[in-house]
Amino acid sequence: MSLFREAARQILRKPATVKYPFEPGIVPPGLRGRPVWDMEKCILCVLCQNACPTAAIKMIPKGPDAGIEYHLDRCIFCAECADACPRKAITITTNFELADTSRSTMVQHYKKPQQAQTQAAKT
């Protein structure tokens, strides 16, 4: 008889979960989400690449493609890159909804602003 009583209690109780993705989830304070680079502050020093335990960051220090290649699909959101950055050019966001059906969107390229403008002018 206690089984039926427990079932009846659970049916009448408010659900413990939210109806994600139809209702937004509650983001707890201190959540480590996707890192974002401020290329105005970045000096391409390679410290974030060296600190990354999963090789999600590839630094291209010289040439026309100089910048950062960030692989979102490799990142474990440990924030070691942000801790290693001497200029605090990396901000850890609270964005955690990063699923996608295309792998090409998982690779993001960051370039210095003057290089991006020069490259856009050439095309």
Folded structure, characterized:
This protein is α+β, with helices and mostly antiparallel strands and 123 residues long. It has one domain: 2-Layer Sandwich (Alpha-Beta Plaits), CATH 3.30.70.3270. It has four helices and five strands; from the N terminus they run H-E-H-E-E-H-E-E-H. The strands form two sheets. The protein has a three-stranded antiparallel sheet with strand order 2-3-5. Strands 1-4 form a two-stranded antiparallel ribbon. The longest helix is centred in the first third of the chain and has 11 residues. The mean pLDDT is 88.
Topology:
Blueprint: H1 2-12, E1 35-37, H2 47-51, E2 57-60, E3 67-71, H3 80-84, E4 90-92, E5 107-111, H4 113-122
Antiparallel strand pairs: 1-4, 2-3, 3-5
Q: TL;DR of this structure?
A:
The chain has 123 residues and is an alpha+beta fold. Helices cover 25% and strands 16% of the residues. It has helices spanning 2-12, 47-51, 80-84, 113-122; strands spanning 35-37, 57-60, 67-71, 90-92, 107-111.
Oligomeric status = single chain
Question: Which radius of gyration do the C-alpha atoms yield?
Answer: 21 Å
Low-confidence stretches: none
Q: What portion of the residues fall into strands of 2 or more residues?
A: 15-25%
As for the CATH topology, it is Alpha-Beta Plaits
Short descriptors:
123 residues, alpha+beta, Alpha-Beta Plaits, 3-stranded antiparallel β-sheet, two-stranded antiparallel sheet, 25% helix, 16% strand
